[in-house]
Amino acid sequence: MSGKEIEKTTKNLTVKTTVKTTEKKLGKINLLDLSVDELQTLLTNLGQQKFRAKQIFSWLSRGAERFDEMTDLSKSLRELLSNISFIGSMKIIDKQISKIDQTAKYLFELNDNNIIESVMMEYIHGYTACISTQVGCRMGCTFCASTGIGFIRNLTPGEMLGQILKMQTDTGKRIGNVVLMGIGEPLDNYDNVIKFMKLLNSPDGLNVGYRHVSLSTCGIVPKMLELANEKLPITLSISLHAPNDEIRNMTMPVNKLYSIDKIIEGCKIYTEVTKRRITFEYALISEINDSISNAEELAKKIKGMLAHVNLIPVNTVKTSSFKKSSRKQILDFKNLLESYGIETTIRRELGTDIEAACGQLRRSEVENKNKMDTCNKKPGVQI
């Protein structure tokens, strides 16, 4: 196949795929972004047999990072694939392991040198990955370590999948549960996130059931309703963190677009359509949102809903003066909600000795890099 024919093939495939690939590598396709059907289209356009698609997809799902690892493909096909595509594996540039509970926090470098982070946690039921969906975030929540260092771009489905594959390859452990709660707002990257979940669920790949996937959103109501119509039996978590608009406006700027009442209304529609329970995430901040009156106000808003509340002791981050509520305050809050018949849990704190909260490791890396760049530009400053 000539160079012009290869170029035409890749252009045709880009038009047919639903994903908008933001990560380019010399104009090549990231194979991790493609479904089995899209791989079949690619191979057919290349004059190859369609059954090879499942072989390639299987290799990718097992963590293959080079074409020469795909030993059941002919050398000529591997060379052809390397001419038009790449495997978007990521580089581990930092890894921290908790001495308390073995939680592992990863800082990954993407092919365009941007950095993201992920966390791998061990529970009784197995291993869970908390992954990022964007490089940076637009939401600006005041208690989040990602706030203040800007939004750069969305991650592609393959880049989300790549985080899981890299952690599995690094640890030799199978990840059976996935939480989209790392850096970024998943519903702000809607199309790529939907495709990622379908790739994750593929029986030809990692085969992670939808019921083992949780998506956390700060409450972009139109996208919540769109997600309901996808009929994917995932767990939807709402980062609520306040019982009223006054407090939520102060901590979460998105509330000025979608008030608590609009979010609650959207949640009710979501549960009616999907028959799936909603989780309300509530980070308790001392003297901000953790009083008994706050708990009672929240209880009255969500009583009777198909929902439960997950209370989270707020993480201490350098960019915020917020303080964690006391154990007594957390238990009192929980008891009040339960008195209204609302199922309530307290999230287990993992990786506290490695700052496992989303965004802290990446923020440190970005700030150090910016500091180095600034110093390098100033004459007379030595590193």
How would you describe this structure to a colleague?
The structure is a single chain. The protein is an alpha/beta fold and 383 residues long. It has 12 helices and 14 strands. Strand 9 (175-180), helix 6 (190-201) and strand 10 (213-217) form a beta-alpha-beta unit. Helix 7 (221-230) runs parallel beside helix 9 (260-274) and helix 10 packs parallel to helix 11. The protein starts with a helix and ends in a 6-residue tail after the last helix. Residues 14-24 and 371-383 have low confidence and may be disordered.
Terminal-residue CA separation? 52 Å
Coarse morphology: elongated
Residue share in helices? 25-40%
Mean pLDDT: 88
Number of helices: 12
What does the largest sheet look like?
A: 10 strands, mixed
| Uncertain runs | 14-24, 371-383
How large, in whole angstroms, is the Cα Rg?
A: 22 Å
Q: If strands are numbered along the chain, what order do they take across the biggest sheet?
A: 3-4-5-6-9-10-11-12-13-14
| SSE string | HEHHHEEEEEEEHEHEHEHHEHEHEH
